[in-house]
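Below is a typical protein record.
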Amino acid sequence: MGTVTVLGSYNLGVTFAVEALPVWGQTLLSRHSFFSHGGKGSNQAVTAARFGAAVRFVGAVGQDAAGISAREMLLHEGIDVSQLVMVPDEPTGIGTIFLDDNGHNAIVVHPGANARLRVDTILQYQRDWPTDTVLLAQLEIPFDTVRTGFAQHSGIRILNPAPADASYAQESWDWVDILTPNETEARILCGLTPDDPVTSSDLLQLMAGRTHGKTIVLTLGAEGALIWHQGQNIRIPAVSVKAVDTTGAGDIFNGVFAAELAHGESLPQAAYKACVGASLSVRWPGVIPAIPSVDEVERTLQGGHQN
């Protein structure tokens, strides 16, 4: 069994289903709403665990009902929470999700306790991380905390650079092995506007040049993924499905991807399995409830899936 350490966020999710996404100044009545476990780190940790990895989650939640519920959920998923910080004077992070009838979403996140995951805490915890663990992180926790944790680690280091910020365009990324941005995040990291019309192929080349040859896995949603690795471009297909909710598909991609690399799969095969997992997930609302089973992904890989 491979091991994955997820350094990242937990957020309580609050989803509002609306006919169309609101514009500034508009008030909408949602068709329905629901609470859910979320946060990029938590979503990725649960996915990696369900795909057979031994997972440790390193994060921070409040000492409130949401934080207690988060810890119980992670334990129920078989995840090691010995390095989950319970912060006494900050609320658990929260994410508000607006989901339209086409499965598109807009998300606003308040980090809460996530912002209290400090560098000194990571340096203390890191002594217990296996040197061969796959380390997976996102950017819903402090950037310096992620960078410090990665710089001190000798195993495979995967960064999902989300949410991206224009200030990161000057970062060297010499402390990362694999970057997994989507197209919007990659444009921002390359100093472009989020809606710049650059093609996916050109964006991948630009990203590779900016990162001095680091492995890039550029996720393309329904189009799969493009990989830059050791000077080669590799296209990874996705599965065609009817999208109900795309929220968290990138998190499921990263969780499957990390688990498969931890199991010793090749980079292209791990990315292909991750694309299938992410594709199947968008057929259902939510994130964790939409994670497909290992068996379903395997059947799809073998050609047994019907839309």
Notes: The chain is about 30% helix and 20% strand. The CA atoms of residues 298 and 304 lie 9 Å apart.
